[in-house]
Specification:
single chain, alpha/beta, UDP N-Acetylglucosamine Acyltransferase, domain 1, 6-stranded mixed β-sheet, 16% strand
């Protein structure tokens, strides 16, 4: 596919991914993510043609206008949509496959100063929530979801959901609706609820010395062990 056909597809993809897009005026002034991808297509083409300095200049100007930093050497597939886009950073050796959805504040960064592949690979159909940081030469699997503000430093399998700092895989299985970020579980909330229940049980043990309470405590301990095991997997 030629560069102009790619850019045309990027533009039409915005209408498919954002129901708030109602006019060409909106598109012109309120979709920096789409424009950043369009300029990337040009910069990447120049970079591959060994006009690397010109490519960097174009992407530097793009960063000033859109606040989105994309290295022209990065590899970005078709129908990649950057929603809102402010603060997005995509490193030099990052690879983004087709149909990936990226929200504002996402960083695809490196953790090494050595040459070679040092940025993430994002597989087809993945969704990166707002503020997510994906660091190092790791792979985010096909159709996986990364929760908002998560910091991912390990591989995420296909069809999985990862959240937290550092991120842990908390669910597997393809999500029917990639936009339902409100359905992601709150690990911190679950931990606090566990601690409150545990304190209440211990208080009852001290006061009542009730065997039934001991049974409840053992059940809660089993739940806690399962939770820790899931966090480590």
């Amino acid at each position: 596919m030629g560069i102009y056909a790619q850019i045309k597809e990027d533009f039409s993809n915005a209408y498919k991914n954002d129901p708030a897009l109602n006019s060409k005026i909106d598109f012109l002034f309120n979709y920096p993510g789409v424009w950043a991808i369009a300029w990337y297509r040009i910069g990447h083409k120049l970079h591959k043609s060994n006009f690397k300095r010109l490519a960097r200049i174009i992407m530097g100007l793009n960063q000033m206008i859109t606040t989105i930093d994309i290295h022209p050497a990065a590899t970005i597939g078709q129908r990649v949509f950057i929603d809102h886009g402010v603060g997005v950073v995509i490193g030099e050796t990052a690879v983004i496959e087709d149909d990936v959805l990226i929200y504002q504040g996402v960083t695809l960064g490196g953790v090494s100063l050595t040459h070679g592949k040092r940025h993430p690979t994002i597989k087809k159909g993945a969704v990166l929530g707002a503020g997510a940081k994906v660091l190092g030469n790791i792979t985010i699997g096909e159709y996986s979801k990364i929760g908002a503000n998560s910091v991912v430093v390990k591989e995420v399998p296909d069809y999985s959901t990862a959240i937290g700092i550092p991120a842990h895989v908390i669910a597997k299985g393809r999500c029917k609706d990639p936009f339902m970020h409100n359905m992601l579980p709150d690990i911190n909330k679950e931990m606090f609820e566990y601690l409150l229940k545990r304190v209440a049980i211990l208080e009852h043990i001290l006061v009542e010395d009730n065997n039934n309470v001991l049974v409840e405590d053992l059940e809660l301990e089993s739940i806690y062990e399962s939770f820790i095991k899931a966090m480590k997997s």
